[in-house]
Design goal:
The complex is a heterodimer.
Chain A lengths: L3 E7 L3 H5 L2 H4 L14 E7 L4 H9 L8 H20 L4 E9 L5 E6 L6 H8 L4 E4 L2 E4 L4 E3 L5 E4 L7 E4 L7 E2 L4 E11 L8 E4 L2 H9 L11 H11 L3 E6 L16
Parallel strand pairs in A: 1-2, 4-11, 5-10, 11-13
Antiparallel strand pairs in A: 3-4, 3-5, 3-6, 6-7, 7-11, 8-9, 12-13
Helix pairs in contact in A: 6-7
Chain B lengths: L1 E4 L4 E5 L2 E6 L2 E5 L1 H9 L4 E2 H12 L8 H14 L3 E4 L4
The chains are: A alpha/beta, B alpha+beta.
Chain lengths: 259, 90
């Protein structure tokens, strides 16, 4: 996303976390970042002693009894830290995004948490460049800073517990070159929807209002409404897509919404 | 009573309607509310605004009193922080 996140892991069980971080975050290398990239630090404590772990958690460090739970919370904490570091610099949409591996043109699928972003990426991602399943950081010129983070996959259907999963394990590949926003969709997943996805172009003002509900740090940005409206206009408007299964959305990725 | 619009942090317009950002909240404004705020760029008596709105949009539906209908809109806009109200003015 353009932020250097330093993860400091300590405790007698630190190795359980450190062993898994490289594969989980394989697609988010810090090597390519410019020297002056914003830098934030997230502290992790993984210990056998539960009281020590609880104290660390209360002090703002990331600590959980089980490594799987810890890794999931760590991903969330890293995301929040990176988003906070970018506040006011770029538009931060709560969205999944996949890009054409050849052109780098990305489709962003805006939706609140828990409403289908990760499922969409898992379902449609193989064959496209995985940009993110969480946050699309896009500049006014439509340049997207990819955030191909680990994916939180529910252990069993309906379970509250999730496991952090390396993108590679799901057949996902990162973008090889620059990524540019080409289309923005507003996801509206409904269990009772029948038939093919229903697509509706939103009024320009409704589009901005809808996006502002899924943007982080809106008020920190200078002229956020005008700039968001310009992004929407540049990609041909915001389209709400009502659907039931992510597989039904595959054809959207082949469309040029701006045409 | 007289009122004056409070400049929002940001605003976009489309076909007579608007969306504004004020105090971290995003508000979608109807054409009537947008017109009213534009008319109140400087201090305006509520009676003047009522007359201007009736001229632009016609009388309120269902035979409602125009002055009362305008007062309700002014109250809503003031509650959102988009208008300041001077109750001391005649």
């Amino acid at each position: 996303m353009g932020v250097r996140v330093v993860t400091e892991v300590s405790g007698d069980r630190a190795a359980e976390v450190l062993d898994r971080l490289p594969s989980l975050w394989e697609y988010c290398p810090a090597d390519d970042l410019p020297e002056d990239a914003p830098t934030v630090t997230v502290e992790v404590v993984h210990v056998s002693d539960e009281a020590t772990g609880r104290a660390a958690d209360a002090a703002g460090q990331v600590s959980r009894r089980h490594a799987d739970d810890l890794l999931q919370v760590l991903t969330q904490r890293i995301t929040v830290a990176a988003i906070d570091a970018l506040a006011g610099r770029v538009h931060l949409l709560h969205a999944a995004a996949l890009a054409d591996p050849g052109t780098g043109i990305a489709h962003a699928f805006v939706a609140p948490g828990g409403t289908g972003k990760t499922t969409l990426v898992r379902t449609l991602g193989p064959g496209f460049a995985y940009v993110t399943d969480e946050t699309v950081a896009v500049a006014d010129d439509l340049t997207v800073s990819p955030y191909p983070k680990p994916l939180s996959i529910r252990r069993t259907p309906g379970s509250l517990l999730k496991d952090e999963t390396p993108p590679r394990a799901l057949g996902l590949t990162p973008s090889a070159g620059p990524v540019r926003l080409g289309a923005v969709w507003l996801l509206d997943r409904r269990e009772d929807h029948d038939g093919p996805p229903a697509v509706r172009l939103l009024d320009p003002l409704d589009a901005v209002v809808a996006l502002t509900q899924q943007v982080s740090h809106l008020a920190v940005m200078d002229r956020p409404l005008q700039r968001l409206a310009a992004v929407v206009d540049a990609v041909g408007g915001l389209r709400r897509v009502t659907y039931r299964d992510a597989t039904d959305l595959r054809h959207l990725l082949g469309e040029d919404a701006a045409s | 009573m007289r009122v004056r619009a409070v400049p929002p942090t940001d605003r976009i317009d489309h076909e007579g309607e608007a969306v504004v950002l004020i105090d971290d909240q995003v508000v979608r404004l109807s054409a009537l509310a947008t017109t009213l705020l534009d008319l109140a760029a400087t201090w305006r008596a509520s009676e003047d605004l009522t007359a201007a709105l009736v001229a632009a949009f016609g009388p309120p539906p269902d035979g409602a009193d125009p002055g009362h209908a305008t007062a309700l809109v002014l109250e809503q806009l003031a509650a959102l922080g988009l208008l300041e109200v001077d109750e001391t003015a005649p």
